[in-house]
Amino acid sequence: MKNSFLFIFLVLFSSCKKTNPLDQRESIANTYYKKAKEIDQDSAFYYFNLAKNAYLEKQDSVGVGKSLVNMAIIQHYNGDYYGSIETSLEANKFLKNTQDSIIKLTLAASYNNMGICSSYLYEFDNSVKFYKEAIKYANIPENKYTYYNNLGNVLTTIEKYPEAKKNLKQALNTKNKISYARALNNLARAKFNENPQYDALPELYQALKIRQEEKNPYEENSSYATLSNYFLKRDSTKALDYAKKMLEVSTKNDSKEDQIQALQKIINLDKKNYFRYFGRFQTLNDSLQIAKSKAKNQFAVVRYDVEQKNAENQILKNKSFKQNIGLAALALALIGGAFYYKKRKKRLQQEKELEVKNTQLKMSKKVHDVVANGLYHMMIDVQNNPEMDKTRILNDIEKMYEESRDISHENIAEKDFAQRFINMITSYSSEEQRVLPVSYKESIWENIPYNTQLELYYIIREILVNMKKHSKAKRASVKFEKNDINLIIRYTDNGVGIGDLNQQKGTGIHNTENRIESIGGDITFEKNPTGGLIIEITIPIQSKYV
């Protein structure tokens, strides 16, 4: 569930320091800040950004920090978790005087925001660290109880039950009924997860009753989710009933994330109606991911537009004839160099793509014989045998996989490549091994040659195959970033990693490096500081503009 109180809490606390009323810049900054608090989140982000820049000009670090924290919280609410953490970290740089009560309040909110975002990204160790920092700086008791609850909840998730219960008992000191119900529900969850024999129903029902009396459907859904989990191995019928109740309430309140969570539970419990609920789940999930991608892009555009305007204004203030001449000369040199480089690179790329196409033509028959016929046979077999044993299906897939190991390329239609790519990544995700694509949108493939797209498809697939076979990772993410120069793909997992990277570079890693080199890119393998592996791929962008 989203912590709906968080945004309201932060934007309502005092925003203005006592300043000279004749100071026009300070007045402008405060006006932007006040306006941001009075409008919807999308526009609020824009005005908080304007306020931040106005406070920067005035060298008001507290105003800058508060504006950035509010921007980070808006990003979090719209699913831009990595961007939200980055903005919070930027805010913390301006909040140095920890003796100031407003700074402590803002820092606590910033760390709490990073804790929430980290938990959504399954980076639970970071989440614990951030929540502890939030508690450290919290100077309002009710806020501190909220942070204790959040910390206890994530500690339960990583099965540190004694510490989780200790923090959740602290959270029970709250005087707020909704906060009390939340902490009580989470404490009961920690207890029955630690001891499956524990009877948590009295506490769970009490938490649900409070939430219903307070008429808070979002919190009510949290109770239904916990009750469904509680009955999962005790009474599947009741588990399904609570999951359906959660779906009913979340549908009335148009809470897509709660609907998705409820549908996931129902799909696992109601096998007879699997396809009906799965189709609804898929539609909702696609819609939510598109909305999050649009929001993230919107935030980036807002920040870029404002920064661009500031940069242009600064240039107008400081420009001189000599500077303009220098810039013009540099621009001409860059344009000339870029034109020559682009023309030469295009010629080399055309030669390389022709070679690849010739190779793929030779292999197309083999692809058809090994893969297409094998898939068709499996499809017919499954259709004819609805109750087919999973082991048999997995054996057939494994056999086909082994037969196709010597095929270099798959004939993926260019028109649906972007969707096939994301489908390939998500197909490796399961309850035991979560694979999370981050910041993926179809537009990232613009100005990327199709041969490069194909190579990246096979490289990422090889990485995910190795993750499944060797890493023992429970969580992995594939993050996509794109700027004017490069496309960057960053793979991270929390598995066993690679002991000595130089000594253990086998054929697979060398082949991957050669593939990246063939498309003019770069790849690095690093140990994840928190355990596991980090692989970063950088591909230069062939822009259609000079």
Fold and architecture overview:
It is an enzyme of class 2 (transferase). GO terms for molecular function: protein histidine kinase activity. This is histidine kinase. InterPro entries: HATPase_C_sf, HATPase_dom, His_kinase_dom, Sensor_HK_TwoCompSys, TPR-like_helical_dom_sf, TPR_rpt. The chain crosses the membrane at residues 324-341. The chain is of the alpha+beta class and 546 residues long. Among the domains are: 1-11 and 25-139, Alpha Horseshoe (Serine Threonine Protein Phosphatase 5, Tetratricopeptide repeat); 236-286, no CATH class; 413-546, Heat Shock Protein 90. The chain has 20 helices and 5 strands. The chain has helices at 5-12, 24-37, 41-58, 61-77, 81-92, 101-120, 124-137, 141-157, 161-171, 177-194, 201-213, 217-230, 236-252, 256-269, 274-318, 321-384, 390-403, 417-426, 450-471, 507-518, and strands at 434-438, 475-482, 486-493, 522-527, 533-540. Strands 1-2-3-5-4 form a 5-stranded mixed β-sheet, covered by helices on one side. It is globular and about 75 Å long. The two termini are 46 Å apart. 31% of the residues are buried. Residues 1-22 have low confidence and may be disordered.
